[in-house]
Amino acid sequence: MEIIKTEIEGVVIIEPRIFKDARGYFFESFSERDFFSLVKEVHFVQDNESRSSYGVLRGLHFQKPPFSQSKLVRVIRGAVLDVAVDIRKGSPTYGKHVAVELTEDNHRQFFIPRGFAHGFSVLTDEVIFQYKCDSFYAPQSEGAIAWDDPDLGIDWRIPADKVLLSEKDRRHPRLKDLDSPFVYGENLY
Questions:
Q1: What is the 3-class SS of 147-159, one letter each residue?
Q2: Which of the residues 68, 102, 161, 185 has an alpha carbon 20 to 30 A from that of 122?
Q3: Which of the residues 97, 118, 131, 172 is marked catalytic?
């Protein structure tokens, strides 16, 4: 696997080695040994999968300590724009984001560490999205920021009138109104 560093330390894109021949392709989608060595020693405890259609936007979500989560995400079918926003108070990249297109063809994965809000927009007719989490889902620990916060400047690559949101995702605060539970420099693991 190749690790592609981003503008924000700890947020990385993972590009697998793909072996293709007349029968199709093969790649190792996860190796704990390689992940620990090349990315971070994170023990994933839960795998999730969602199906969505064009225009669906999920995010920007996080879980508060002590249930905060790192995520390793990928697309099985279709394409998404996946986004990680730094919400660690005091971070030199606070409020900055990394966006990457994940597709069934590029097989890329995106690692979002603890201390970041995460979301994605669906760019194709249908998407099957999978992600690993290093902490179990804890509904009492949910947190989020507004997907359309103008201070974030995220281009979701979908016209605003085509965005499909859950009721919950319509009501999140802007980053400037968030009392982030994450502090830059603290051990979040």
A1: CCCCCCCCCCCCC
A2: 68
A3: 131
Residue type, 167: E
Which residues contact residue 87 at a Cβ distance below 8 angstroms, ignoring those fewer than 6 apart?
A: 62, 94, 95, 115, 116, 117, 145, 175, 178, 180, 182
Peptide bond into 188 cis (omega under 30): no
pLDDT digits (tens, 9 = 90+) for 8-39: 999 999 999 999 999 999 999 999 999 999 99
Which one of 61, 97, 107, 118 is the catalytic residue?
Answer: 61
d(CA 111, CA 132): 9
| CA atoms in the 13 A half-sphere facing the CB of 131 | 23
User: Is there a catalytic annotation at residue 61?
Assistant: yes
Contact 140, 44 (CB under 8 A): no
pLDDT in tens, 62-71: 999 999 999 9
137 in catalytic set: no
